[in-house]
Amino acid sequence: MFRRIAIIAMACLSLSAWLPAQAANPPLSADQARTLLHSLHFRQGHIDVPGAHASLELTPAFSYLDAADARKVLEQLWRNPPDTGVLGMIVPGNDARSLVADDGYAVVITYADDGYVSDKDAADIDYGALLQNMQKATRDANDERRKQGYRTMQLVGWAESPHYDRSQHKLYWAKDLRVEGISSDALNYDIRALGRHGYLSLNAVAGMGQLASVKAGMQEILPMVEFDQGARYADFDASTDRVAAYGISALIAGTLAAKAGLFAKLFAMLLAAKKLVLAGVAAAAAFLRKLFKRKPA
To answer: What span is annotated as the signal peptide, if there is one (predicted)?
Structure first.
C-alpha cells in the first residue's frame, strides 16, 4: 500500500504538466500522503448527506468519507482546485487502499438545488441524437479549452447509454472521454437522483478498462440513495415549489456543453501504469445554474 502512496506522490509531479497553473496544488510527499490517508474516517451503514436532505444506506462493500475528508482526498491528494460543493465521497472497501490502488475509484457526491426537474421528456429523448449534439459541443469548446490552458477533449461515445427509472426517479449514464496526449480513454459514470428541490449527483471516474467493475459498483450504489421524507420527488407541490428550467435531456447534455471552465474542476490520478483518469466533479451543476438562471415562463 505504502509503495503505491509513494508512486502517487511521485506521479503528482507529472500532473503539473497537464493541469493549468492556476489549478495545480503543491504535490504531497510520500510521508504527507501516508499521514493524510491515516487521518481519514471511513463510515458505513446509514449515512445522512447534509445539505441535500438525503441519505445513503451503504452495504459493507462500500464506505463513506464526509465532506472534509473527501476534500482532503480531492484537493490535497489528487490536487484538484478547492470545491465547497463536495458533500462526500463513496469508496469501495473500508480503508484507504481503495484510494491508492491501481484499479481503485471513488464516487464524488454533490447536490444542485435548482428546483424540481421535470421528467416529462424522458420517454421521448433520442439518445443517439443527443450524443451527436454533445460531441459537436465538445469539439466546438476545444478552442476555448486550449485558450484556458487545458488539453482538447473528445467525447468518443456512450460507455453506458442513459437509462431513466421513472418509478425511482433516478438517471444514470456513462461517457467514454479521450483527452489530447493521453493514451487511454477515461470513463465518467454518472448517477442523478431527482428530488423535490433539486438533484443529487454521484460521479465516478476511472479508466475505460474498469468499465465492468465501475458499472457493477454504481449499480449496487443506485438503490442505496434516497431523499428524506418531504424532500422526495413525489413530494413536489406545484403551487409552492420551484421548477428547474431544464429537463432530463439537458441534465445529461449539460455535463459536456459548457465551454470555458467546464472541466476546471479536475478529478485526476496518475497511477503506476501511467493511466490518467479525469472528469469534472461539480462543474455540470454550476453550468446548468448559469445556463438556465432564468425562471421558466
So the answer is: 1-23
